Amino acid sequence: MDTRFSIDFRPKLFSTLKGYDFKLFSKDFMAGIIVGIVAIPLAIAFGIASGVGPTEGLVTAIIAGFLISVFGGSKVQIGGPTGAFIVIIYGIIQQFGLGGLAIATIMAGVMLVLMGLFKLGSVIKFMPYPIIVGFTGGIAITIFSTQMNDLFGLGIEDVPANFIDKWICYFNNIGNIDWWSFAVGLISILIIVYTPRFSKKVPGSLLAIIIMTVVCWLLRTYAGVTSIATIGDLYTLPSGLPEWRLPSIPEGETIFSTMQSLLPVAFTIAMLGAIESLLSAMVADGIIGDRHNSNTELIGQGIANIVVPFFGGIPATGAIARTMANINNGGRTPVAGIVHTVVLLCVLLLLGGLVGAIPMPCLAGVLIMVSYNMSGWRTIRSMCRQSRSDITILFTTLLLTVIFDLTIAIEIGLVLAVVLFMRRIMENTSISVINKELEVHNDGEGEDEKLIIPSYAEVYEIDGPFFFGVANKFEEMARTRSKAKVRIVRMRKVSFIDATGLHNLEIFINASIENGRKVILSGVNETVYKSLERAGVVTLLGKENVLDNIHSALARAEEIGC
Q: Is the pLDDT of residue 377 over 60?
């Protein structure tokens, strides 16, 4: 049966429910509660940092988290808003508004579903590692830079979006530091840093929010300290379930013009979401000894991102920190992810007033620690000892992410990675002309031997892929004048040949025929032979002149060269 066009959509939830028992549920239930508690400060902080609000962050964690657990391809993946999207979301809102963000998120969701339907899950995992490290580090620096206003209580109402302008603005307002706000932010960071030394179960970020919220309430109520801004001072707090609403189109735009403008950022959201979720799932597989379905995971991520904008949510993906918390606390099926969304729903419906009392400098401290943990500075330090090309890709992507935006960084990073990869292949691919003696290595299956090349023949040996980067080198070498009547092109180490290679080989053959010379191809593997046959090269030469090995090629040369 031909399954090339079958849909690879098998959500893990339905397969794990077979044989599901109360013992497994109790583990998932406890893990889900703990992960839900961990997700509370992160969902609120990511929503605010993205330029929307706490409600949108919680709504995204609830709806997207639920859909990713139900339709995803990993047993333990926890979905929701993540720090990686902050920079992109903030930029979209600045340029296109909330309506533009909703449309871009839906477009990204459709792209993710299509990636899964066309079975691109395994391909996306081959994103060059230096690019991943570079844009992750760049995002971490950008998140850190967005928190200075709240950390120091500068009170700047309109912080510039550009990285350099942002820091110029900070320094221009350095005299407006509110030391109470700074103290709250600094103590929050210290609580997060030192909590693991005393307890591995209680999240430091949650403990910091609880303690500093109480402290700020006491300062405001009994000491008259009102300079510390809280969430309730800046945002409308949640008061119930979000309502379904259609995304609004920016004024003066049509749906098609808006989609055209948003296509690059939607693609960036889709790629970033795919990469982050699949990397998270791969890490989780290594810990629980399972194997996720990457195509199903992409479809699940896509469904979540299509639905969540209709409730005011923001882009979501698999969150590696919350996924690790789920695993470490015993979660082994998607039921744990569903329980975590129920916990967040209770917070949204019942604890809105308490959420409003959380101090903004405390959230800034939480996000600063998030940026530190995702910066990967240890990985960057170790990669600085690797090849120059990897270092170039890493720091180019990092700097472009920080100074410009993630879309440009990924595009240029990928182009640079491809160019450097081709250069590496070109450096490792050699072309030589042999006209006297040829050493034949039998790769341990027999004794090596030396073959004498007759005076009427010469051998062109191609060692490596024959693609456009190498084809011109072959053409230049083939122009050398010689009196050889027979030209043998030895292709035993040519793993593939592209259109440019085929074109140059055809030119070489035609030029040889015009000059009264014969061409023989030696050592052609099955894949390359099919390419030659489709391009008409085999017909041009004749099948008798396309041979399996150099011995047959020299024998054929003797037949036609004497």
A: yes
The 3-state secondary structure of 254-266 reads CHHHHHHHHHHHH
Name, in order, each residue with C-beta under 8 angstroms of 439's C-beta and a sequence gap of 6 or more.
448, 449, 450, 451
Distance of CA 437 to the CA centre of its chain: 50
- Mention every residue, 6+ apart, whose C-beta is less than 8 A from residue 253: 261
CA distance 249 to 92: 13
Count Cβ atoms within 10 A of the Cβ of residue 317 and give its class: 0-12 exposed, 13-18 middle, 19 or more buried.
buried
Q: Check residue 545 and report its DSSP letter.
A: G
CA distance 555 to 488: 11
Domain 430-561: CATH superfamily is STAS domain (3.30.750.24)
User: With b meaning 16 or more CB within 10 Å and e meaning fewer, what string describes 36-70?
Assistant: bbbbbbbbbbbbbbbbbbbbbbbbbbbbbbbbbbb
**What average pLDDT does the segment 80-101 reach?**
88
pTM metric for this prediction: 0.72
491 SS3 class: coil
How far is the CA of 150 from the CAs of 1, 181, 306, 365, 442, in angstroms?
Answer: 61, 8, 32, 9, 69
Q: What is the pLDDT of residues 485-517, one digit of tens each?
A: 888 898 888 888 888 888 888 888 888 888 888
Long-range contacts of 547-551 (CB under 8 A, 24+ apart): 547/520, 547/521, 547/522, 547/523, 548/522, 548/523, 548/524, 549/492, 549/522, 549/523, 550/438, 550/440, 550/451, 550/459, 550/488, 550/490, 550/492, 550/522, 550/523, 551/451
Q: What is the distance, to the nearest Å, from the Cα of residue 192 to the centroid of all Cα atoms in its chain?
A: 28
Contacts of 173 (CB under 8 A, 6+ apart): 154, 155, 156
The three-state DSSP-derived secondary structure of 379-405 is HHHHHCCCCHHHHHHHHHHHHHHHHCC
What is the C-alpha separation between 491 and 508, in angstroms, rounded? 15
C-alpha closest to that of 143 among 357, 378, 406:
406
**DSSP run (H or E) holding 437:** strand 437-440
- CB–CB of 62/341 below 8 Å? yes
Given the DSSP bridges, would you call strands 430-434 and 457-463 parallel, antiparallel or unpaired? antiparallel
Specify the pLDDT at position 296.
96
In 136-292, beta strands by DSSP E: none
Residue 444 pLDDT level (bands cut at 50, 70, 90):
very low
Domain ranges of the chain: 23-239+262-379, 430-561
Averaged pLDDT for residues 310-333: 89
Tokens of 126: 């081959």
What is the distance of C-alpha 441 from the center of its chain?
42
449-452 and 437-440 beta bridge pairing = antiparallel
What is the C-alpha to C-alpha distance for residues 73 and 76, in angstroms, rounded to an integer?
9
Q: Which helix (H) or strand (E) holds 431?
A: strand 430-434
| Poorest-pLDDT segment among 130-144, 389-403, 465-479 | 465-479
Q: Assess contact for 121 and 115: CB atoms under 8 A.
A: yes
Q: Residue 82: name the closest of 372, 322, 335, 404 by CA.
A: 322
First-to-last alpha carbon distance for the chain, in angstroms, is 53
